[in-house]
Amino acid sequence: MNSEQQAGPVPGDRGAPEGSFVNKAFAEQALTVRNLSVCYGSGRWRQQPVTAVEDVSFDIAAGETVGLVGESGSGKSTVAKAVLGLQRPSAGSITLNGRDITHISVRQRRAMVTELRAVFQDPFSSLSPFQTVGQTLAEPLRAQRIVDGRARELAAGAITSVGLPEEALSRYPHQFSGGQRQRIALARALVCDPEAIVMDEPVSALDLSTQAQVLNLLAELRDRHRHAVLFVAHDLGVVRFLCQRVIVLYRGMVMEAGTAADVTAQPKHPYSVALTAAAPVPRPAEQARRRAIRQAVTVQGGGRPEQGNAGCPFAARCPSATDVCRAQRPPLRALDARLVACHHAR
Amino acid sequence: MTGYLARRAFLALVTVLVAVVLSFLLVHLTPGSPGQLILGAGATKAQVAAKNSQIGWNQPLLTQLGRYLASVARGNLGTSIIDGHSIGGDLLQRLPVTGLTAVLAAAVSAVAGTGLGLFAATRRGAVDRAVDTASGVALSLPAFWTGVLLVYVLSIKAGLLPATGYVTPAQGLSEWLKSITLPVIALAIPATAIVARTARAALIQALREPHIQMLRSLGEAPWRLLLIHALRSASVPVVSVLGVQFVALFSGSVIIENLFGLPGLGQAASNAITSYDFPAVEGVVIVASLVVVLVNLLLDVLVAGLDPRVRAR
Amino acid sequence: MSITVERAEAPPAAKPPAGRTRLPRFLRRPGGIFGAGWLLLLALLSATAPLWRPYGPDAQHLTGRLHGPSPSHWLGTDDLGRDILTRIFTASGPALLAAALSVAVAFAVAIPLVLAAAEYGHRVERLTSRCADVILALPATIILLALIGAVGGGDTYLIMAALGVLMASVVYRTLLGVAQGLHHRLYVDAARVDGVGPARIGIRYVLPGMATVTAVQASQLFAASILIQSGLAFMGFGPAEPTPSWGGMIATASKYVYQDPWIMVPAGVVLALTVIAANMLGDALAAARHDQDHKRRRQPPRRATAAAPTCPQPESAVPGAPLLEVTDLSLELTGGPRLVTGLTLSLDAGRVLGLVGESGCGKTLTALALLGLLPPEVSSASGSIRFEGRELAGMGERQLRPLRGRELAMIPQDPMVALDPLFTVGFQLAAQIRRFRRVGRKEATRMAIAQLERVGIGDPARVLRARPYELSGGMAQRVTIALALTGEPRLLIADEPTTALDVTVQAEILDLLRRLVEETGVAVVIVSHDMGVIADICDEVAVMYAGHIVEQGPAAEVLEEPRHPYTGALLAANPHLAGDQAVPGRLLTIPGQVPAPGGWPTGCRFAARCRFAQERCNTPVELAADANGTLVRCTRAKELHELRTAGRPGPG
Description:
The complex is a heterotrimer of chains A (346), B (313) and C (652).
Chain A: H1 24-28, E1 29-40, E2 50-61, E3 65-69, H2 76-84, E4 91-96, E5 99-100, H3 106-111, E6 116-119, H4 133-143, H5 148-161, H6 178-190, E7 196-200, H7 208-224, E8 228-233, H8 236-242, E9 245-250, E10 253-259, H9 260-265, H10 270-278, H11 284-297, H12 323-327, E11 333-335, E12 338-340
Parallel strand pairs in A: 3-8, 3-9, 6-7, 7-8
Antiparallel strand pairs in A: 1-2, 1-4, 4-5, 9-10, 10-12, 11-12
Helix pairs in contact in A: 4-5, 4-6, 5-6, 6-7, 10-11
Chain B: H1 2-27, H2 34-39, H3 45-55, H4 61-73, H5 87-123, H6 125-138, H7 143-157, H8 173-208, H9 210-217, H10 222-260, H11 265-274, H12 278-306
Helix pairs in contact in B: 1-12, 5-6, 5-8, 5-10, 5-12, 6-8, 7-8, 7-10, 8-10, 10-11, 10-12, 11-12
Chain C: H1 30-52, H2 84-120, H3 122-137, H4 140-151, H5 156-183, H6 186-193, H7 198-206, H8 211-237, H9 246-255, H10 264-289, H11 291-298, E1 324-333, E2 338-347, E3 352-356, H12 363-371, E4 378-387, E5 390-391, H13 397-400, E6 408-411, H14 415-418, H15 425-437, H16 441-454, H17 460-465, H18 473-484, E7 491-495, H19 503-520, E8 523-528, H20 531-537, E9 540-545, E10 548-554, H21 555-560, H22 565-572, E11 624-625, E12 631-632, H23 637-645
Parallel strand pairs in C: 3-8, 3-9, 6-7, 7-8
Antiparallel strand pairs in C: 1-2, 1-4, 4-5, 9-10, 10-12, 11-12
Helix pairs in contact in C: 1-2, 1-10, 2-3, 2-5, 2-7, 2-8, 3-5, 4-5, 5-8, 6-7, 8-9, 8-10, 9-10, 15-16, 18-19
């Protein structure tokens, strides 16, 4: 993979005006997100609007698996939901295969069902208990008016590609284990052979050994097919295993973006440093090393994070924060084949 | 808190308004006109028409409604078209009868129900199932039927309590209590059963809550866990169900008054209906709705005080 | 090396979806059987009444008035000599139909509104909910009386339909909560992504989920409707004479109760039985839904029983002995299979022990057993738990209570719900401080602030005034740690204390725990599924699988050089790597599934899934000390270790 091309949007490029022209570079990207912002709660009486996502931009090319990493409140799930149309963006654009899908209607989205699919986190509630596995897999095909024989063929193909037998189609979700259900959810995403798949923490709710099985399956799909995958996770280790590139989010904003190997091995943004140092590794000697880094990096935590000030969102917790950090939001700038939003990163 | 209060008060007002308009519309659906009823079968059409315009029956509906609302707002509920008595005055006298009976029944069921619920929640096993079955039966028994049975056993056979009739508290406290004991028991039986079930379920739920487990792990005494912490958590659903029960008791007392001869709102309602005294019918609906709505408002405030998370709604 | 996607194990044997070939759950309870049975019988008798009734409902026998039961009149005669049996079952048909009508109307009105409110979001929901609130607050009987005043009491069906509209508000309230809950389920989101339209979402995805609640409500409203109907008839507002009605018959009976008390009985009993039946049916349906709760209710809570010494030992601590010593502890589902077997651990003051394993291995139950906080359905079968020389297993609740908080304390998994949401942090903390240290309010507040500072909270005064739901996860966990430390316990038991937290916050909490251990010498047992957490904070670790320990020893040894194949496999399945490790193409996976309690083989419980299993693994395996002091439960441990050091594939 060529790291320069995949390093993300060109700095200074605020994104194409919505759908007004089709840049050749954009056409190669399967999924493009530009300046996406999502605000909740405006218009409700007595509730402050909450900015969940602010000015997030990235591209995913066909065949690429990109990880979107962050902790709670980072906005990563919101980005996924916005791409899937489950959450309305307040600003910015989302483009799939050159077509602007930011504000499309339910009917248009139905037509797009073969292009953009989803896998959700909770294997126990993402499959309807009232339908058989076969009926669930056939549901997206219905929107494309594919029914009966052809639908059954495609469903059977999808279920076997995730390692489950064809008889599974006539059973109900409650008869399967968590790992098997997640495979079924994956089959549901694959049944239409989509261009892009959004996965919202698909392995977070699984046991370690089940997680390994599903991760292997995802790695297999990554190697064999050309889907563009947006992989949302909170676990850097998982992202490093599976993704080629990673984007680190904090409080709705991009802090760092680059190849998975680079960002996890040598993080440049202080938040990425804190995140990698905090991720626990099952080797006591290594943990001791990380602990030392952690204690040098973190600042005393203090209560609920506050909203809406002008500076860098991480300034309150950053050990190397200065006045300029608190006053001015750092732009996302290119640094050694990756992007970092920090005034002081080298 | 004030925001919450304001919202609930506004809703209460709307409810009363709806009740008034509803009863007004219903009354005007009556076949025949008041004039006809007052003057009787022998009256001529002209006489009926004259009487009706005298009452104001022929004016457009909205005008009549407007005038009525205006006079209600001033506190005047009109006069009976049957015997001309002041409806407002009459209902005001009757209100304490129904109100006190319902309040007493609610209080009895609150105490007895919570006690039974506590008992069932702590004993579990066979005792629990017995209470469950007994309450299932108790809440199904029609209050008017148990009322008659109570009269038969305690009044006719045992002669302990009067079968019918009402004595105001002013006339004698113990006589008053005796006169309402049977109605209150009849009303309280189903209500106690419902409160007991709610209390039991809420207590069992509360005892499983993580924060109670945490206190248990710190060594808190079990009686404190049950009677202070769990009961507090459980009080919210219990108070809510009491609110619902009060509405039911108020409605139910309408039937009970008929049986025990209590001069309350229920009696006024059935008299008014059988004699087609439409202003009286409207009057009863207003007063009853007002009382029910006020009590619910009070309970809403109580619940919001107990559980601050409710105030955001 | 790349491992191709293995065929996942066959799904569990196809069970028919619940309810298809077996009797529905609610019919397997006495209440359900009685309720459904009686209602069906009544309906049958009512429908066929004209065929079998011995007399016409209006046939009067003026000479035989107010007679009790007799061979010619099984239930006696009323004041006009009419046969009561006939009249009861003539009245029952219309009564049941009218009640059914009101229930049908209630649901017909409420369900579309509920579906619309849940699907179309805030504005629609606000409108419909306000309307429902208003209708709910109206006194139903009085409104019905007003209606009767308008149209007369004879038209029962109209009145019951009006009751249905009033009851729709109750249905709306209950079902709205359910529908909204269902709407938030992920499968609804998934359906939206699938392009499913709002109508189909409502009908295929939300409505089926409301089925049970609907059935329960329908039964309860049916009962209420019959009661209200008869009540109105009792007052004289039912069907006009001579049409019989239950309420009317009771009213007549009440007039003659002095002369003939018997006639109060038949109509009343039939009415009561019908209402009871409907309510019991509703109960059975509701209980079938919460089946597990019901099972638990049947078993009264059991005290921990143990084969340990019968009386607790005297209090003096044995010098030099470990702080905590568990020997051969076994836990079982009361009256059922064992859940944990042969557990042996020991822990000294100032040391941290980790219990690690996947879900279902028994680690949480072990932790709860130490505090005597096992859930009622689990009890300890045998073994001993010695804390500072005192035997805890077999102690009753009364003896354990003084120890809790003062000697042993727990740190919960989810701090947000472990704190009382109705009170401020300060109130809760001060209450415990006053209980343990017996100080006044001011002093308790001062100590609370000091305690919060000790757990690393920068602004203790503000936190004292806050309510738990106003705090962040990390802050709340610090508060629960502060709470746990109030009694100055010597042993802390932490059940997955960081699972609910973000990774950076988790790191902070682990650092805090470390610091507290260093500063105060408290011992900690930490339960976790995350090997990384264990590596960070634990001195010793016990790896659990299927209810027993498979490897046990110093954390550094076990995690760097695991001896048991399961430990090795867990570490190899872990995607978290040290900075210098290369990313593998595929992770090592363990085929098969954990055997459930009750289905454990007598030999090695991991053998069925182990790469290195051989014939001799089918005999029971004990924990054996390895060369470097770790205990391993594997017959091939030594052999596999030698193979590995010789460069062949092994557990590590």
